[in-house]
Amino acid sequence: MRRLSRRNTLNLVKELDAFPKVPENYVETSAFGGTVSLVVFILMALLTISEFIVYQDSWIKYEYEVDTDFTSKLKIKVDITVAMQCKRVGADVLDISGTVVASKELKYDPVSFEPSPQKKMWYQILHQIQNRLNEERSIQNVLFKSAPKGYFSDPVPQNDSASDSQSACRIHGHIYVDKVAGNFHIILGKTIDTVRGHAHFVPLIKNEAAFNFSHRIDCLSFGNDVPGHINPLDGTEKITLEQNMLFQYFITVVPTKLHTSGVSVDMHQFSVTEQERVVSKEKSGHGMTGIFIKYKLSPLMVRVREEHMPIFMFLVRLCGIVGGIFSTSGLLHKLIGYLVDVICCRIRFGPDQSKEQIKMNNVFTMTLHCPEENVFLSGCSS
Asked: Could you tell me the pTM of the whole model?
């Protein structure tokens, strides 16, 4: 009984096979058909490989929403070298509410303003990346994907403090501020607390040539650190021979949540515009000499996600490629074969005789079953 049931099951499965089966005796092979089959299989292999490469790749998706986090602190990380002695400059933050933040985490190290050869090479590479970022924004996607791997991190140490010339001051560290607009500035004099508010104590300096605010920004970032991430002002260098120069940077900080295959972190991106001018009464300039970084926070938050193609979508696209190539190639093969037959018949018999010859061929090439002889004949009559 079990054997009978198995046979019945196999017969039922064979009867359900809806794919057409053509005996090999009825299949006519040709060099043209073989060439088409070879081209089809090569094309199918190439498209399959390219589709697999696309499946392995990923893309960056951006989503926007309102930032509702107002209570947390914002970290500002700075690493700026000013072409002045450390005893003559001071740095702090004054926000829109009047709060002064003069963090003790900021360090003042006397260094040489001229960078080392290795540092110069790193600046050149960084400037090239910054220029490409300004021209092609799609490179930012590559930086988001590769930032956790540290491909663009600074491999070169800072200037050696044991250098002979230590006429510059490196100001570096981090400051925690409220999430409101503020002004980080580096000006003459150290910060002092007074009853009336914010002030800087400026000692008497006879040499006015010492008032040179040429500077180099190695790092200026907001929020958490992301290894290898490049900020817009990283590598900025401003050199001037004027003594009373005012450098201003207007920054808009955008909170960003980065989710990739390698890292998931809350960071802050920012855009910047620059302005510099001479402050002097002769040139009708107003303001104060120094370096002013004025920042404000955007109310919108950006979610950056790295997405991959799902496996089921990859299989559907792969089936579409295979099936589409098969059906399209078969249709083109039949169409080209029909056109070749028509053209050959016209050349051989002429335009009038070719139509009759095609009709006769269509009639006598039909394969009919003759019941008397139980065989297949071409053009037989019952």
From this structure: 0.66
